Amino acid sequence: MPPLSLSGLHETLALLTSQLRPDANHKEDMVFLRDVFSEKSLAYLMKIHEKLRQYERQSPTPVLHSASTLAEDVAEELQIGPMSVEEKELLQLLTSPHMRAVLSVHDTVAQKNFDPVLPPLPDDFDDELEEESVKIVRLVKNKEPLGATIRRDEATGAVIVARIMRGGAADRSGLVHVGDELREVNGVAVAHKRPDEISQLLSQSQGSITLKIIPAIKEEDRIKESRVSGWFIVALFDYNPGEDKATPCQEAGLPFQRGDVLQVVSQDDPTWWQAKRVADGNLRAGLIPSKHFQERSCGAGLRRSFRLSRKDRQGSSGEAPDSGDPEFLTYEEVSRYQQRPSERPRLVVLIGSLGARINELKQKVIAENPYRYAVAVPHTTRPRKSHEKEGVEYHFVTKQAFDTDAQNNKFIEHGEYKENQYGTSIEAIRSIQARNKICLVDMQPEALKTLRTAEFKPFVVFVKPRIPESRRRRSAATSPGGGDHGRFTDEDLQEMRQSAQLIDLQYGHLVDRVLIKEDTASACVELRAVLERLERETFWVPISWVKS
Q: Where is this region: Disordered (predicted)?
């Protein structure tokens, strides 16, 4: 091994070693020190120390805090279409256990705050209260919020810590707790300040922040406090705390969109839960309205507007008002699920807006791989044609048999066309799954409520055509989502947009994937990629689907 170059502390250590001269009185001690200082392992440690100090002076900062999520997104994009040799090599690298572990460690370190160094405690703090009842807390808070909200006690007027945000600076310290009385912030008394002034004082403090507090309960009783709940929900509505006047602290609110998966980490407050967005990788939690509070708040407004609209309809048309109140959506508890080899394949449901032509898409995918994908054979009351076979194109039944099955709720959906009845039965789907094939069904969105069960675990794909925004942009005169050259009027395009918007509004919370259809060929490639992922990847599903 080549000799190590000497610099800094390592050089000083080597020089010290060369100066050691054992004498008669301390010979054993000198020999021991020289042997210790001459150890190669100690020399290596000194070199490592020098390198770390050199790197520390560069003040390195992470480029991003969620490298793991980015790697997963890249790997997902690579699998959508055909891959080159380099892309396959990159995919193998990104999905290897060692790379995933490295990225996970990177994210953990990137999300922690190590600076600034805390200054020494002051020697001149107020000694008016007993030593046992006062606590001086010094926290490190960079550009992040403190992670605590306050309230004024109505009886005593004291400033009380109302909640501690999980993962925030206050929570990480373990020194501030709900119910503690706040007396000072950086030496400034807060007893006579308004809550908004105190919040501003806390938010403007950077680096070290010193709090004088009176603990609410004894330290030995802290272990009795509740900790992380750790359960997951999917949001069924959009939420912006900046627009919510009811939130106790807009800065502490967590914005989210419909479809985001949230981890609820605290339900100590029945009105405002603490949660984190799973996709963010952020360690700090934010406030979200609880299920009960959101249902109560939104429900009152929806019921009022619903009653007014029914009153208007009744006054204008003379019709009796509809029964029942509108459905309002908040959260659904979910869990991770991956299909096991012993399980039947998940049902794939295609719903589409006007112009999507999903039946054509479904048939093309099945034709490309009939051994893996199949369609549920529908029932009909129309006469069988000479070239048709029973159980292939249709199950041909009498009108009486069809009506009986319909009354017994054996059809997912059914209807009439040219005085003949058509319908897709539950047993037809089961027969496909029993052969270990993925069953593709296209249907009206209303049928989703019947199919969303643990038995079928449906994966819902919403197909909608790419609609040109203006007449100039559709000069090629191709029909949305198809391949022919029929022209569409502005009225046709507007009707397609409204159809897609209505489905998204009423059933978007049940959709797992939105597929924008440029043409049948590209849509088929995208759908096939989705189906392949369905068999090997993990997805969020309602928790009732996976509970034993």
A: 309-328
